[in-house]
Amino acid sequence: FMQYRNPIILSFAIFFVSFLPAAGQTVKGNFARSAVSRGSIVKGIIVIDIPDGLHVNSSKPNSEYAIPTSVSIDTAGLRPISVKYPEGTDRKFQFSETELNVYEGKVIIPFSITVPKGFKGGKLAVRAVVQYQACTEEVCYAPKNKELILTAAVR
Q1: Which of 46, 91, 150, 151 has its CA 20 to 30 A from that of 28?
Q2: What is the mean pLDDT of residues 77-94?
Q3: How do strand 144-154 and strand 35-36 relate by DSSP bridges?
């Protein structure tokens, strides 16, 4: 057992750790196929891997103060059809008076877009921005935005 003899150093260490970003979440995305056809519906997924001990607010966290997970897709000439958020899990945390709906572990968020028949060019590039807020059992970290560029060949 280690004793801290200097309360100033201990206070500084606690203060410093409280501002560290939540580490460990990875956000990736891809289309179901590496090549797509003009005039077709293209399916893709966003995957958020959340390490043990952390969770992120779901798309419907049940609190006006919790920042929901969201995926925005910049289609630039394509037609978005849908983003389908999974159901979260209701959990009670030390920092919240009510249960929050959260995601834990691996979260898969499917989406689909339509490639117009008259699409010009041989490459599809779609910008996706994933906003999420990671939390521990005691605290929530600042929200993050992760930008992804998803590509596929167009035939």
Answers
A1: 91
A2: 88
A3: parallel
